[in-house]
Amino acid sequence: IDNDFGHALVDGFTARAKKLGATIVHTDFNDFGEKQFTPVITGDVSRGATGFYVVQYAAEGLQFVRNWKTANEKLPVVSTEGIDSTTQFIAQVGTGANGFVITTALNRDSKSPGTKRFLRAFKAKYHFAPDMVGATTYDSFFVLRKAMAGGTSSSSIASRLAALKNYLGVT
Description:
The chain is mainly alpha-helical. 51% of the residues lie in helices and 5% in strands. It is built from seven helices and three strands; from the N terminus they run ααβαβαβααα.
């Protein structure tokens, strides 16, 4: 996706992949609302791609999967927290993205009591499983709460945020 999020993730991935000896055959950025990924998929396969790193949000991720299935591709796909939405991506795509690896800060299989409690409580209240955005928002508010416990001036909050170490959240 052609925004700061997309560029930062692609830049980081590319730098690390190259250090590990991978060859990046092509990089493509798209606008929000993109509906046609087939030319990118088939073009990259013809360039020798052996896998895909996909940075999208849920709507564009859904369209990528649809085009992926239409192209009948079997190459591995790694994607990011941008498509980690239980209602907007995972429920919509069903088994269509089986085999995709989605990197996210939310470990739904965590053994942490706090994470387990959050997952149960969220689902009980909203009737669907939380995604990474819900979990990191939850953590963010509790981090802010800790920082504001020492005062609400901007300097006090900034100082306490800077001093916060080893915060154990749900992500």
